[in-house]
């Protein structure tokens, strides 16, 4: 029985070490992905940044605006390979904003209880640009709406209930 317990403990330790290396070590960082798309569109502004699971594979979905051209990329989260790339002309581009997607993400994270970044998207409503930032807190998804020029928290969805700021 003692040998069985030793084998079980060793198996758990080895198994969890392997899991954490695969879960954390194989994935590119946000900065590495940003560097990849910035090489493709040097003057572009990131308007969407999301890590998604597509058919069992982790993929970064990135959208950038370069003037009135929107460029979309799917990037393999393990290798950095560009899996898909397309572009389209937009009639009404949002234009330049004062707050970057990184700043909007950080504002939302400060409002969260140990939230994990999921997605940020630059949007426009009635000529007012804002970021929609999604975070995960355990199994709860929260959304934060942040003014793209002032950084002001406009509203947040908590537990499905909208709280206006």
UniProtKB/TrEMBL annotation:
UniProt key word Signal: yes
List UniProt keywords, sorted A-Z: Signal
Concerning InterPro entries, the annotation shows: Cystatin_sf, PepSY
Question: Which SUPFAM superfamilies does the protein's record reference?
Answer: Cystatin/monellin
Q: Residue limits of the PepSY domain?
A: 28-85, 98-156
Where is the signal peptide, in residue numbers? 1-25
Could you tell me what this protein is called? PepSY domain-containing protein
Annotated source species: Fusobacterium simiae
Lineage of origin? Bacteria, Fusobacteriati, Fusobacteriota, Fusobacteriia, Fusobacteriales
